[in-house]
Structures are given as structure tokens and as C-alpha cells.
Amino acid sequence: MEPMAIVSIFVLAVFVGFEVVSKVSSTLHTPLMSGANAIHGVILVGAIIVADHSHTNLELGLSLAAIVLATINMVGGFVVTDRMLEMFKGKKKGADQ
Amino acid sequence: MSSALYDLIGLAAGVCFILALKGLSHPKTARRGNLIGALGATVATLVVFLYVTKPADGTPAHSLPLHNLGWILGAIAVGLAIGVPAARKVQMTQMPQLVALFNGVGGGAAALVAIVEYLNLGAEATKAEVIFTVFTVVVGCVSFSGSIITFMKLQELMTTRPVVFPGGRFVIAATLAAVLGVSGWVVAALGTTPLLVLAALSLLFGILFVLPVGGADVPIVISLLNAFTGLTVAASGYVLNSTLLIIAGTLVGASGTILTRLMADAMGRSLFGTLFGAFTAKPQDVAAAGEERPVRSGSPDDVAILLNYARRVVIVPGFGLAVAQAQHTVRELADLMISKGIDVAYGIHPVAGRMPGHMNVLLAEANVPYDQLAEMDEVNPTFGQTDVAIVIGANDVVNPAAKTTPGCPIYGMPILEVSNAANVIFLKRSMRPGFAGIENELLYDPKTMLLFGDAKASLTKVVSALKAL
Fold first, then answer.
1. What was the ipTM of the complex prediction?
2. N or C terminus of chain A: which is more exposed, having fewer CB within 10 Å?
3. Residue B420: pLDDT above 60?
4. Domain parsing of chain A, residue ranges
5. Which of A9, A33, A89 is closest, CB to CB, to B259?
6. From the CA of A75, how many Å to the nearest CA of chain B?
7. Do B75 and A91 touch (CB under 8 A)?
8. Is B217 contained in some domain?
9. What is the spatial distance between Cα B247 and Cα A17, in angstroms, rounded to a whole number?
10. B297 plus B261 within the same structural domain
11. B28-42, B62-76, B112-126, B311-325: lowest mean pLDDT where?
12. In a 10 Å sphere around its CB, with 0-12 CB exposed, 13-18 middle and 19+ buried, how is residue B142 labelled?
């Protein structure tokens, strides 16, 4: 990819990242951190790509370890975030009744 | 699948992540936001099986299916078998540790990906690719070992106090210099051995970096390491030529940095002070002052009588409430008081518990009505008109030392000013200081009454005593 294109994507993503979370009540700090944590679990995509590229047993072993860790990060992260937020939903339902 | 379609789907996943972060920033849309994020991640993972990327060593891309497909699917199955039960079974009290652990393994994964990619880099690799690979190894390893230490601190597998040893800052500075030096060596001369040395040094630096951080500041460090991991993912995206990884990693890096600052602000700390304050911290005079001073302890009946004649009561929950799983019992007590015509509010400190918002989540589980939860700025002016403040398993967030003792680790942190209430009741397991390890003068105040024991057992007794009145 063109270096300039990469720099553009990077800079724009930085600003989007700043903007979307600039005003968050402290109640949501933990779920937001947990959700962002789950998002960087997409390193799983990178782990799968390098597993495909692996030539030696060492490379394959390290890639597979990366896949296990990245899957834990991504799937575990989204599940645990959902559990945190489920409780907020329960509360609202209780208030409506 | 064509490369354009592959990139387009990657872009769609990136948009999902933006919408996810946006959604997670508002209570109404938070849950949907998380699901949109999960959707984006799932799509991104499925698509990678349908498109073969060009290896970094310059050989042309092979045809589908992916090499080592069976191994890849097996490894994903192992990850699912570990991650899903861990996330589903964890108790509310242990969620912060789990988030720290998930962040650490994510950093570890990024470092491993970079190491494999480094081993794969051929003569065609550009200097920029090598530099980004080295960056990912270093920061990924720091995030991994640092997160493990934060996990151990939160799980209380090790001391929660800052670990400072003589010459500590020189050791840290020397390690950092070594990391930078070896990084330069690895970039200049490709080789496996220097890379492994670099990984080991980076792991060591991660440990040294987090050890001096005091217990109460651990959430801030987790958030910072989360942002670090995001940046490593972005750097991997550069090397692996994946726009999706660049977008996702940068988003997490940027939003994680802002979130870290928001958390630090909520605790009244400068980020710099949090990370480096422990280097200069001195042992606390306050802590040494009085182990043997008298305190006033009471029985559940005493507490019930105080409550029965109060007009306004503020409940201040802390980590002890989470440990005792007493959220339902505290609600029972609050409902009982309300039925007696007592004005009841919960005073929620932004960082009560182990994480910002920890208490809100816990009380929401017990269906405590939202309008009874008062944030710190809202509740502080009302303590003057409050007859009784019940502090349940909280300590640092009500410790007046934050206002009166310059130099103590929590100095400058805004607190719930329960000392302005006419009576203060502390429900505590023991006289042990709070998470930050600082003695609380308020415990010795004549208007303070202590009720020792497990918060749930104590509250149950108070409820039955109050019913009997």
C-alpha cells in the first residue's frame, strides 16, 4: 500500500478514535474499555494470515499460539462486555415496570 | 474473492468498530454497540479464510484454501474453549482482572504475530516494515507482561502497594535504554537471537513499568496498556498490509488514550503522576501513626436504631460490597428505610470498586432504581443535611487524607465527603487499610461507628433489627 495512504488512514482513525469517546460518563468507562479491548482482538486476522504464511514448525507453533491468545482476547472480550451491559438493560426494564 | 472486495469488507468491519465505540459511549446504545463490534470482528475473521494475502517474503500468493487450515481452526476452537467459559463464569468482582488478562493475551498475540512475520521477512522487506515489526514486538511484550502484573495485583496474588526498590528508577531507565539499543540492533542486522533478546528485555520492562504503580491506580494502567495493544495491532496492520488492522488498532489506541485520561481525571490524578509518582513516593507517615488507637464499634442493633431515627441516609458502596455480593441485601435495607419514610440515596464515587462504574453495574444487578444513584458532585453538597452515611466496604474513596495529607498516594483525588454527615457507619471486614494501603483517619473520628464483619451478614442483621423496631 502507498505510504501516504497508510498515513492518511492512521491520522483519520486517530481523530475518529478521539471524537467518539470524548464525552463518556464514568459509569461506562469500564464497559467501554472492555469493548475496545475486545476490538483489538481482531489481531486474530493477523494471526491467521501469518499461520497461512508459516513455513517452519517454529513459525507455525508461534502463529497457532497467537491464534489461541487472539481468540481469547476477541471472543472473551465481547462476551464479558455484554455481560456487564446486560445488567444495565435489566435495570432499565425494572424501572419501566 | 477479489482483493477489492476483501478490502471493502475489511472497511465495513472498520466502520462497525467505529459504531461500536460510539454506541458504547452512551448508556442506551451501549449493548447494541458491543454487538455491532462483535459482528464486525466475526465478519473480518470469516473473510480472512476466503482470501489469500501475499507473503512478506515476496513469494506469490497461493490459491485457496489457506495453508495449515486444520491447525488454524483447531487453535480457534481452543481459544473459544478457554475464552468463552472464562468470560461467562467470572464473578462481577473479578471482571476488572479478566479485562486486564484479555488485554495482556491480545498484546501477546500481537507480539507473536510480529515475531513470526519477522522470521518470514525476506530480502524484499523494507526498513519501514522491519521497524514496525520491532515496534510491535516491544510494545506487545510490554503490554503482555504489564497486564499480567496488573492482573496479579487485582487478584491480590501479590501486594497491591507500589513495589519500589532502591535504585529502581535506574534499573528501569537502564532496561528502557537496553530495549531501545537492541531494537536498533535488530533493525540494522536481521537475526533471530537479537529479536528474542529484545522480546525478553521488553517483557522485563513491562514488569518493571507496572510494579511501582499503587493499587488504586491500576485501572488507569490497564486502560493505558489497552491503548498500547491497539497501537501494536495498527503496526501489525502496516506489515501485513491490512487496512482493517490499521483502522481497528488505531481506533483502540486513540480512544484508549482518551479513556485513560478521562479515568485519570475522575481520580484527580495527572497521568504522568500516576505512572511515575511511585518513583518518588515515601513511606506513609499516616500509616505508621496508629495501629493501636481506639475505635468505636457497634452492634447491628445500634446501627438499626441510628437509621430508624434518621431523615436522610446516604449509602456509599465500595469494593467490599462486591466481595460480599451484598448488593441485594443493601437494596433490601434501602427499600425498608424508604418504606419508613427515610430519604435514601446511594453516593457513587466514580472509581469506587476496582474500576470506574463498578458499583453502578453491581447495583444495577440488584435492580436498584437509577434515580437513587447519585454521582459524587451531586451527593457531596448534601452530606451536611445527611443524618447517617453508611460506608459499605469502601475506604479510599472517603478517606479525608486525599484532601489533608499532601504526598499521600491518593492526595488530590476527589472524595465523597461523608465526614460532613452527622453520623458515619463503616461496615468493614477488619481494620485493614483500603486498596491504596493508606490509613483512614475517619475511622477514629468520634462520630464514626464501625460494624465489623462480612458486609452481607452485617446488613442482613441490620435489616432484621430494623424490621423489629
1. 0.90
2. C
3. yes
4. 27-96
5. A33
6. 6
7. no
8. yes
9. 10
10. no
11. B112-126
12. buried
Complete edge-to-edge strand list for the sheet that includes strand B343-348: B373-375, B343-348, B312-317, B388-392, B423-428, B448-452
Q: Is residue B272 part of a domain?
A: yes
Mean pLDDT of chain B: 85
Helix (H), strand (E) counts: chain A: 5, 0
Question: What average pLDDT does this structure show over B415-422?
Answer: 89
Asked whether the predicted pLDDT for residue B285 surpasses 60, the reply is no
First-to-last C-alpha distance (Å) of chain A: 55
Provide the whole-model pTM. Answer: 0.75
Spell out which residues of chain B touch residue A44, defining contact as CB-CB under 8 Å: 41, 45, 76, 109
Q: Which residues of B touch A8 (CB under 8 A)?
A: none
Given the residues B343, B396, B445, B454, the one annotated as active site: B396
> Does any CB of chain B come closer than 8 Å to the CB of residue A64?
yes
Inside any domain, residue B287: no
The total number of structural domains that make up chain B: 2
Same structural domain for residues B135 and B239? yes
C-alpha to C-alpha distance for B296 and B318, rounded to whole angstroms: 21
A7 touches chain B (CB under 8 A): no
pLDDT tens column, B170-226: 888 899 999 999 999 888 877 788 889 999 999 999 999 888 887 667 888 999 999
Please answer whether residues A70 and B12 qualify as being in contact, where contact means their C-beta atoms are separated by less than 8 angstroms: no
Count how many residues are written for chain A: 97
* A48: nearest CA partner in chain B: B72
B265 is catalytic: no
